[in-house]
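#lab-general

N.A. 3:47 PM
ok so I finally got the sequence cleaned up, no stray characters, all 370 residues accounted for. can someone with queue access submit it? mine expired

B.Y. 3:52 PM
send it over

N.A. 3:53 PM
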Amino acid sequence: MLAQGIPGTIQESLYYHVYNRGVENTAIFYDEEDYRVFLDYLKDYLSVPADPESAKKVFNIRGRAFRGTPHQPKNYFDQLELVAYSLSPNHFHLVINLKQKDSLQGFIRSLCTRYSMYFNKKQHRTGSLFQGPYKSILIQDEACVLLLTRHLHSHGFSSYPEYLNTRVTPWVKPAAVLTYFEKTRFDSFKGLGSYKDFVEKYQPGQKEKELLEKISLEDKTLYTEKREAVSKNQHPPSRRRTPELIAASGIFVILLTLGLRNIIGSSKNIVNTPPPTSSVLSETMETEKPTETMETKEPKKMLSVKATGGSANVNIHQEPAVNSKMVGKAKEGDIFEFVSEDSGWYEIKLADGSVGFISSEYIEVIQENK
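B.Y. 4:20 PM
back already:
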């Protein structure tokens, strides 16, 4: 009765149940807008193609006007029909009536890729949205299709209103399932007056539950009438790049870069700084000595030769005595460096570095260097 769908061996004009879920079982629909976008994509694929002429628009490129047709997604209107659907926060179900061989794989892949691009952009995330390749199973019995639609219409955002004729959607095709229900309800579903009663009141037997376990494609093997909605907070924070996370990451990178630059700069300064020379070291040591231990130099006393009492020159003696040998002469105004003083005589430093003596009566102290 059941056959697993395998790409490349799909049979024509048969029913397929298609299922896919969010990666790590996380949400793929957060709000009503997400459901509407997914359904709009289904509408694009399954509606009657628009007339190419009516789809043309005027484009302005570099100041010049052109009339052309915008890019349109591939259309599967004449290749397959959507019999029923159910969208839950973390997965979706589609029941497809296949008309053309090999069209199912391209249709589902295009649908999932297109929706993933929309969802990732909206939620500021990257990476895969769906767990992996979609699952599909071939259903060759119309009774199984009927039970499956009841299961899908018992929960989620589904095509149930189309089956109750309270909402008309041209690209959803419930006629075949409803026709089969009308033909079999008196024999198989006694006491049920409508498809609504079948969905809301019918109690499946054990064999029907086991059958649904095989064709539901869900991870839970036990069939239940109600399943809890997946919390919207299940979306892994690590996969969502919120503005706050991006800003924090940027600040961290900047601080890390500045820190590395400071470390590198400090290392260069340490390596390139030459060791202190002996003179610098000695100066440093001298400045660090206590002031009371530093040797103080006596200020230099300068001497000037004063009036000579009419004489042109003043004698400079080798010893502090009038009768000692003369070593030179000085005239009024000559200046000498004081060396010492001894019994009325000044010892002076001569230009050649030697010393001599002049009587104190011819000397005047004129300056002290401090």
